[in-house]
Automatic annotation (TrEMBL):
The keyword Protein transport does not apply. It comes from Verminephrobacter eiseniae (strain EF01-2). One of its GO terms (molecular function) is DNA-binding transcription factor activity. This is Transcriptional regulator, LacI family. Residues 5-59 form the HTH lacI-type domain. PROSITE patterns: HTH_LACI_1, HTH_LACI_2. InterPro entries: HTH_LacI (IPR000843), LacI/GalR-like_sensor (IPR046335), Lambda_DNA-bd_dom_sf (IPR010982), Peripla_BP_I (IPR028082). CDD domains: HTH_LacI (cd01392), PBP1_LacI_sugar_binding-like (cd06267). Keywords: DNA-binding, Repressor, Transcription, Transcription regulation.
Length: 348
């Protein structure tokens, strides 16, 4: 096997010093065009491959940040990844995509990359309840920005949307259409976004002087399959609701499938409001009324905070780390109508 080329070899061929080659390749030295050409030609001629570990040690930075998230197939996270990559690139950083599949072992692995200088910082998103293990791992490290979902006990910069306002607007919209029996289908009860959206739902009911009915709140997961089973359970009841506030658009998709299979019309028999405004929401039949939270704005805001931390070369404050809230807004489409006069029943 041929011996790998070194900076010494490049310097000899280009007729410059090793220090000049090293600083030029690290981007910290501006050279005359002719000198740059000689070094570039030598790099190509000798098929030189820079040692990334040596570079990290020499400049104290990997010039890479990571985006830790549960999966990339979900359109919300795909849009988030696109926004984070663009913002990182514009800030002079590359992006490592770190998919966890909601496994603590994977989350721990990527957090460990901060310790080895594989990454300078992390944009971190999780959507599973934490038993304290993840919070402990994050709490020991700096240069991390948490987005979308909270991790209890972690005092680091965070970017969230106004989930309470979103839950309120969704439920208020159904109330304004004339519904008084409104179900709420949502994710795991321990999740931060679930608790906040539920608080908004309850606030809207309270302002309309409608008693809260815990039997109309179904906790599960932010997944299409749970939307299917939840809708089936609700329409089978003798006192079925006339409207549903879904905690995510994926849940709404599952509900539409079940309602269609049951021969029920949306919004004629059941009104639905979702949450997220994923791209497919406007393509469904009917198009879904939903609360828009911008994954793109969330990703860009998270990167801006992280790059500011890295530029300052200091960790976030030990206490009182900033929390940025992004607004949500109601997107009205065709999935909400006044309630039908005849309640749903198994005989329908």
């Amino acid at each position: 096997m041929a011996k790998a080329s070194t900076i010494r070899d490049i310097a000899a061929l280009a007729k410059v010093s090793k220090a000049t080659v090293s600083r030029y390749l690290n981007g910290t030295l501006d050279l005359p065009q002719e000198t740059r050409r000689r070094i570039d030609d030598a790099v190509l001629a000798l098929n030189y491959r820079q040692n990334s570990l040596a570079r990290r040690l020499s400049i104290g930075s990997s010039e890479m940040i990571g985006l830790v998230m549960p999966d990339v197939a979900n359109p919300f996270f795909a849009e988030l990844a696109d926004a984070v990559e663009q913002a990182a690139f514009e800030g002079g950083f590359g992006l490592a995509l770190c998919i966890t599949r909601n496994q603590l072992a994977r989350e721990a692995l990527y957090l460990g990359w901060l310790d080895t200088q594989h990454l300078d910082g992390l944009i971190f998103a999780t959507n599973r309840p934490d038993d304290g293990s993840l919070g402990k791992l994050i709490g020991e490290r700096s240069n991390i920005v948490l987005i979308d979902e909270d991790v209890p006990g972690v005092d680091i910069p965070k970017v969230f949307v106004d989930n309470i306002e979103g839950g309120y607007l969704a439920t208020r919209h159904l109330l304004d259409a004339g519904h008084t029996r409104i179900a709420h289908v949502t994710g795991p009860a321990a999740l931060f976004t679930v608790r906040e959206r539920l608080a908004g739902y309850r606030r809207a009911l309270d302002t309309a002087h409608i008693p809260f009915d815990a039997s109309l709140v179904l906790f599960g997961s932010y997944e299409r399959r749970f939307g299917q089973t939840a809708a089936a359970e609700l329409v089978a009841r003798d006192d079925a609701p006339t409207a549903i506030f879904a905690g995510s658009d994926y849940l709404a998709v599952g509900m539409l499938e079940t309602l269609r299979d049951c021969g029920l019309d949306v919004p004629g028999d059941m009104s639905i409001v979702g949450f997220d405004d994923m791209e497919f929401a406007s393509l469904l039949m009917p198009p879904i009324t939903t609360l828009k939270q911008s994954a793109r704005e969330m990703g860009s805001a998270g990167v801006a905070i992280l790059l500011a931390m890295l530029a300052d070369h200091s960790p976030a404050p030990a206490t009182g780390a900033p929390v940025q809230r992004l607004p949500v807004r109601l997107i009205e489409r065709a999935s909400v109508a006044p309630p039908r006069k005849k309640p749903l029943s198994n005989a329908d």
